Amino acid sequence: MGKTKITIDYSKCGDGVGIDPRDCGKCLQVCDPAVFLRHETLSVPQDPIDPQTWRITAVWLDLCNHCMKCVETCPQGAITVS
Amino acid sequence: MKHGAGGKWYLNARNYSNDLAKEMNMEQYLTDQWRMFETVFIRKIMGTSSIGLGYKLKMPIIGRVIRWNAEKMIHSEAKNRNPLRADGHFGQVLPLEDAKLVFSELAAEPIIENYCMCRAMQRGIKEVCCFNFGVLSGVIEKLPRFIPKNTKLRLDREEAIARLEEHNKNGKVATVWFQPVPYINAICSCETPQCGGLRLRTDFGLKSVYKAEYAIRVDPDKCQGCRECIGMCQFGALKFSPTLNRVWVDPKKCFGCGLCRHACNFDALQLAPREEFPGLKGLY
Predict the structure, then answer these.
(1) What integer best gives the mean pLDDT of chain A?
(2) For B74-109, how does the pLDDT look when each residue is reduced to its tens digit (9 = 90+)?
(3) Whose CA is closest to B257, among B198, B184, B207?
(4) Is the dihedral of CA B76, B79, B83, B89 positive or negative?
(5) How far is Cα B190 from Cα B200, in angstroms, rounded to an integer?
């Protein structure tokens, strides 16, 4: 099997549009190996003490089991795994 | 206890002192680190981020360079350390008894208990189980996302011990942290795989967390084979043998946290100093 790729459509979740990953976070909890990371978005200027724009990034890609639970669970349909 | 006498770095009182924190200019350093801690795994460090780290470490030659660089960074004692990379930030597992000793005699006040960042960033769950002390407490108190809503932030030593014991018996591994070495300012209640530190150790073999100064022994005469302890072990060190109708330990996998003892009703599990296990010499 080749390398796992997980993409998140930031026009549907995070970065201040769509839903706020701090309110949802379903992908974070449904993933057994905890592949995802929720962090402040670096590409926009933020209040360093209390950043308000957050996104999810799939970090630990090699640990993904391809169970597809994140894809099924995401209420925005923002996640693709290949 | 004579300060600084033991071989255990976390029993050296100097490592907790406000003088050391001042000398190291910790307030500014830790503010820079904690303001953006959640981004440590997505930042490019020497040209590469932690995204797909497992794949990167498997690359021939390059993988070995990345591993070498990562270890160097985790254990860095250089003068020009970078807070955004969490340079010099590593820890060690410790059993409840030693963690209590840190709270009762060593940790610099104020002691706070705040939301665990690792669970928040990797599970989206805000859980109050992370203890910080000394200068770091003041730094975290200024960051709204770490401040618990329904529990007390500042704790006295007895309260901290009681809370830690609760977490430990609940199945969370106590760990003590340099942040950065040699300043000690945190005891966490960790759980794999959503602990940033344990993740690097258990999934990628990086020495971000050392095993405790102890390992577990099973008394074969006392063990009744109920297997309750196995569910407590986060490191896969305990196995059940149907043939022997008892539990046995793989000492090389044991991190010496002592959690399994909380589940045993027959007093069959005992922690022993790591040096008493000839096969574990130098293995931390």
Answers:
(1) 95
(2) 999 999 999 999 899 999 999 999 999 999 999 999
(3) B198
(4) positive
(5) 13
Residues B98, B261 contacting (CB under 8 angstroms)? no
Enumerate residues 21 to 40 of chain B having a beta carbon within 8 A of any beta carbon in chain A. Answer: 35-36, 38-39
Q: What is the pLDDT of residue B197?
A: 96
Question: Is A61 at the interface with chain B, CB within 8 A?
Answer: yes
Q: Are strands B91-93 and B209-210 parallel, antiparallel or unpaired?
A: parallel
pLDDT tens sequence across B26-73: 999 999 999 999 999 999 887 889 999 999 999 999 999 999 999 999
Among B58, B122, B142, select the one facing A34 at the smallest CB separation: B122
Nearest to B144 by CA among B35, B44, B249: B35
A34–B194: do the CB atoms touch at under 8 Å? yes
Cα angle B10, B210, B176 (rounded to 5 degrees) comes to: 40
Say what the pTM is.
0.94
DSSP string, B83-111: GGGTTT--EEE--HHHHHHIIIIIPPSPE
Whether the CB of B234 is below 8 Å from some CB of chain A: the reply is no
* Closest partner CB to B123 (pick from A28, A48, A57): A28
User: Do residues B149 and B108 touch, judged by C-beta distance below 8 A?
Assistant: no
The encoded tokens of residue B26 equal: 């910790």
Selection from B109, B132, B107, B101 nearest residue B6 by Cα:
B101
Are the CB atoms for B42 and B53 separated by under 8 Å?
A: no
What ipTM was reported for this prediction?
0.95
Question: Taking a C-beta distance cutoff of 8 angstroms, is the pair B210, B124 a contact?
Answer: no
In this structure, what is the dihedral angle of CA atoms B255, B258, B261, B267, given to the nearest 10 degrees? 100
Q: Which of A16-30, B3-17, B126-140 has the lowest mean pLDDT?
A: B3-17
